[in-house]
């Protein structure tokens, strides 16, 4: 199996498209960091207490607005609570331009990393049939199951490599250009203001973002394997990844969307507590996703193993 994965890895990096994907990611990470540094203005943090008082006064004024909706009321109440906490505990806010802030930017582009991984994931099988190289591959004394497994593992290793590269680069660039953050970051959990660790929050975001990452890759791999069309696989994966929430909003009028994988693949909703479907739990999301993982993999392997290859 190791030799098969090694072979697929080498084939992947012999393609110009793979290097183009790497170039796009590097350009985004380095470009945004440099742009932030060039356009960064010196932030005067000496008057942060006055700014917090202004936020409290603004929230109080907004809360007096007639017929204010529930979401806006909650938002202004939280704004006021966090500002008051800072004043009471002498907790100055963090400055956005910092190593931690740049690391958070890295976590925010997980969608881009997923899209860049979907491209080779959709074509790693179908392109073999298109180019006719699948005939040579199948002549080796190795089962089709192992061949397809090696391709799937290779794609996930590629995507995980992009994630690790992003973490390393955003941390290094942030430290070199901005230094570490000063101040304290706050969050509200169950109505209570709490201090939070930005770095741990960033890594949690990465972990929970693996839901969309995994499901998008498996879906693209499934479509590319079953229909032998990388373009359809890439297009559908991009559509579901970018427009997933809108699709769920449209479908929930007609069908129970809690059984659709798009409703659960964005696991970061369990961090933000902003759910597509109310009363969604993490265990429920993971259960639904596991079922779809089994379905995607079963159909992919059944199709690949049974497919006839013309001489």
> In terms of quaternary structure, what is this?
single chain
User: What does the radius of gyration come to?
Assistant: 24 Å
Strand arrangement across the biggest beta sheet: 1-2
Low-confidence stretches: none
Q: How large a portion of the residues is in β-strands, by DSSP E?
A: under 5%
Fraction of residues in helix: over 70%
The average pLDDT value, as a whole number, equals: 85
Largest sheet: 2 strands, antiparallel
Terminal-residue CA separation: 26 Å
> Pairing-aware structural class of the strands and helices?
mainly alpha
What's the β-strand tally? Answer: 2
Shape descriptor reads globular
Helical stretch tally: 14
- The SSE order reads HHHHHHHHHEEHHHHH
What features would you describe in this structure?
With 311 residues, the protein is mostly helical. It contains 14 helices and 2 strands; from the N terminus they run αααααααααββααααα. It has helices at 2-13, 16-39, 48-63, 70-89, 99-108, 110-123, 126-131, 134-138, 144-177, 198-227, 230-251, 261-264, 269-272, 282-306; strands at 185-189, 192-196. The protein has a two-stranded antiparallel sheet with strand order 1-2. Strand 1 (185-189) and strand 2 form a beta hairpin. Helix 6 crosses helix 11 and helix 10 crosses helix 11 (230-251). The radius of gyration is 24 Å and the shape is globular.
Outline the secondary-structure elements:
Elements: H1 2-13, H2 16-39, H3 48-63, H4 70-89, H5 99-108, H6 110-123, H7 126-131, H8 134-138, H9 144-177, E1 185-189, E2 192-196, H10 198-227, H11 230-251, H12 261-264, H13 269-272, H14 282-306
Antiparallel strand pairs: 1-2
Helix pairs in contact: 1-9, 2-6, 2-9, 3-4, 5-9, 5-10, 6-9, 6-10, 6-11, 9-10, 10-11, 10-14
């Amino acid at each position: 199996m190791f030799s098969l994965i090694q072979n697929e890895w080498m084939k992947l990096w012999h393609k110009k498209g793979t290097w183009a994907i790497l170039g796009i990611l590097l350009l985004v990470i380095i470009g945004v960091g440099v742009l932030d540094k060039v356009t960064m203005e010196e932030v005067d943090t000496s008057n942060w207490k006055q700014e917090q008082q202004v936020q409290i006064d603004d929230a109080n004024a907004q809360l007096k607005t007639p017929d204010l909706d529930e979401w806006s009321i909650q938002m202004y109440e939280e704004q006021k609570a966090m500002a008051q906490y800072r004043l009471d505990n002498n907790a100055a806010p963090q400055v956005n331009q910092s190593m931690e802030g740049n690391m958070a930017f890295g976590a925010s582009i997980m969608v881009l990393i997923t899209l860049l991984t979907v491209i080779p994931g959709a074509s790693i099988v179908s392109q073999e049939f298109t180019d006719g190289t699948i005939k040579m591959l199948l002549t080796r004394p190795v089962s089709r199951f192992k061949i397809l497994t090696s391709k799937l593992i290779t794609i996930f290793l590629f995507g995980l490599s992009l994630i690790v590269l992003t973490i390393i680069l955003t941390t290094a660039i942030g430290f070199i250009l901005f230094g570490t953050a000063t101040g304290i970051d706050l969050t509200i959990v169950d109505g209570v203001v709490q201090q939070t660790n930005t770095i741990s929050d960033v890594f949690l975001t990465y972990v929970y973002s693996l839901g969309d990452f995994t499901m998008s890759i498996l879906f693209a791999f499934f479509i590319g394997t079953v229909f032998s069309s990388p373009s359809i696989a890439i297009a559908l994966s991009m559509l579901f990844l970018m427009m997933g929430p809108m699709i769920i909003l449209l479908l929930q009028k007609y069908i129970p969307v809690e059984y659709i994988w798009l409703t659960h693949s964005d696991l970061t909703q369990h961090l933000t507590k902003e759910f597509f479907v109310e009363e969604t739990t993490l265990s429920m999301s993971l259960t639904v996703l596991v079922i779809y993982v089994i379905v995607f993999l079963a159909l992919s392997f059944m199709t690949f193993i049974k497919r006839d290859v013309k001489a």
